[in-house]
Amino acid sequence: MDISWDDAQTFLAIAEAGSISGGAQRLGLGQPTVSRRIALLEARLGISLFVRSKQGVELTEAAMRLRPAAEQMARWASELGRLASGEEEEAAGTVRIAGPPAMAVDWLAPLAAELGRDHPALRVEVLASVDHVDLVRGEADLALRTRPANEPELMTLAEGTSEVGVFASQGYVTALDARRLTDGREHEPLSFADLDWITWARPYEQVAPRPMLERAIPDFAPSFASDDFLVQRAATAAGLGAMILDARGAQLAGLVPVDVEFNPPPNTFRLVCAKSMQFVPRVRLVAERIIDAIRAIDIAAEIRPEAP
Question: Looking at the structure, do residues 219 and 196 belong to the same domain, yes or no?
Fold first, then answer.
């Protein structure tokens, strides 16, 4: 029995969202329409795909066997769309870029403004998330990632580094110096354990740099935590503690460096896309602009004079 892509897409949307309402939202359809589609599909297949409850839905054993095939259909549907897009003659339309929150705020949003001024027919969407975005499935056209792209369908277009350091508000640094003076420790090197840390809260406790802080500081407990990067940075600016940040973003936020005994290593990141996306004019234009920005950062780092 053949299953259409519409049916597979409906099934997959519900499976990934964990509920019929969530699947409907992903598809941009009404919940009754999605419920009707999945009921018809179950009737044609002669099997139940989901166990329904007040909390949402769970996949049946039959559905779990079908899910990998549906995911592969999604990949091929995205690939077909990408190859068809490569036939366009000018850079027009929407390009979706995924990136870590800090890069999305400090790099990609200003870049989107520049591209909008230079290319009015081009529209950039920025997905700022610590969650994985599947480029093979077409969830985004480009991504800035801190980890290598190991999937055979993906390619790395450029690689760069950015300076990372410990930053806080001037008020916090002044109060910290006063506290250390009172304790008679003003001449001792400042360690990570001396600082009040602002970092990620659940469900993102495994997002850097929190795991590093937990390894470096016994019984680590942050002074403030949030699941949102901008909230963390706002708390840092308010003087609640220190935060490990990209140097450029910290300066834009008005934060000052904290002179600690050990400085975090530079952040390595990569611009990644599905291999077929390199042939799409609008994506290629945006990629080239990001590559230029990466090169400018690397050149600036090379020519910056060392501190005496």
Answer: yes
In this structure, what token pair is assigned to residue 214?
Answer: 């937990």
**Six-digit token pair at 50?**
């989901």
Residue 301, pLDDT > 50, answer no
Between CA 36 and CA 25 the distance in angstroms is: 15
Last residue of a domain, one of 36, 53, 85: 85
Distance CA 19, CA 246 (A): 38
Contact indicator for 73, 5 with CB cutoff of 8 Å? yes
Q: Where are the beta strands (DSSP E) in the chain?
A: 50-53, 56-59, 93-99, 122-128, 142-145, 154-162, 164-168, 198-200, 224-226, 243-246, 256-257, 267-274
**Whole-number Å distance between alpha carbons of 10 and 34:** 7
Task: Work out the mean pLDDT of the chain and round it to a whole number.
Answer: 88
Q: Do 147 and 296 share a structural domain? A: yes
Q: Are residues 151 and 272 in the same domain?
A: yes
What interhelical angle do 20-27 and 31-45 show, nearest 10? 110
**Domain, as residue range, for 274:** 93-161+267-303
CA separation (Å) from 8 to 14, 62, 110, 294?
10, 14, 38, 39
Domain count, the chain: 3
Q: Are residues 146 and 293 in the same domain?
A: yes
Q: Which among 133, 120, 152 has a CA at the least distance from the CA of 282?
A: 120
| 67-119 pLDDT per residue, tens | 888 887 787 777 666 566 655 556 778 899 999 999 999 999 999 999 999 99
CA–CA separation, 132 and 204 (whole Å):
12
Average pLDDT of span 1-27: 87
Higher per-residue confidence, 298 vs 259: 259
pLDDT in tens, 52-73: 887 889 999 988 888 888 887 7
